[in-house]
Amino acid sequence: MKLNGTSLNSLPHNKNGKNLHSDADLNDLLTDEMGESHAATSLETPLREDAFELDDDLKIELIEKHFREIMNILGLDLTDDSLKGSPRRVAKMYVKETFSGLNPANKPAPTLFENKFGYNQMLVEKDITVHSYCEHHFVPILGKAHVAYISSGKVIGLSKLNRIVQYFAKRPQVQERLTVQIANELKQILETEDVAVIIDAKHLCVSTRGVNDVESSTVTAAYHGKFEDEATRQELLRYIGTTN
Ligand SMILES: [Zn+2]
Q1: What protein residues have CB closer than 5 angstroms to ion ligand 1?
Q2: Which Enzyme Commission number(s) are on file for it (predicted)?
Q3: How far apart are CA 198 and CA 144, in angstroms?
Q4: Whether pLDDT at 16 is above 80
Q5: Does the pLDDT of residue 201 top 80, yes or no?
């Protein structure tokens, strides 16, 4: 078996020291490594061209069926009153809530205003709640986003900043991609390069499984335009309270 020119025989042990007996073992190893390193393959969410050919109702119906099968395989008794509604509950949650940000139809329409007050300093919306989902483990990423921009003549309704964060969060994500997607969207709609996004989040795949580290959090940042200047960046960090 060859994969990227590497022979299976040259990888005789995985990280736990176990022998790799089959292609499936090697694939599991590579899949684990991809997940644990939280590597993303692109800045765009990897969606198929036909992603929205099925409507939401049909998606819910199909996911319900498949999730019931997962529960069945786990040996759960789906006639139990507590469990029997779970497949549909999960399916609706995936399509209508947790992953609703996959569908461009749910993207918040930006409402822009003229900058009539001539406010030309930095605007920071801080501590925006982030509820996202790790795309490697399908468990939550929970944290805060801080977004900032310097107006080029347009200003945006404040709650729209929260909604833009939430839209991109409601996808299977990696935190780096989420950060970049929010920054790119803000640059585009505000017609300025002067944008910054900082996210500080806990990954439940890190805290509740794997390395089981409850305390650690992950910080990612995108600084563009004037935020690449040290003084501007320090001003932002002062506002969000991460420097003295
Ligand atoms: Zn994960």
Answers
A1: 134, 136-137, 205
A2: 3.5.4.16
A3: 8
A4: no
A5: yes
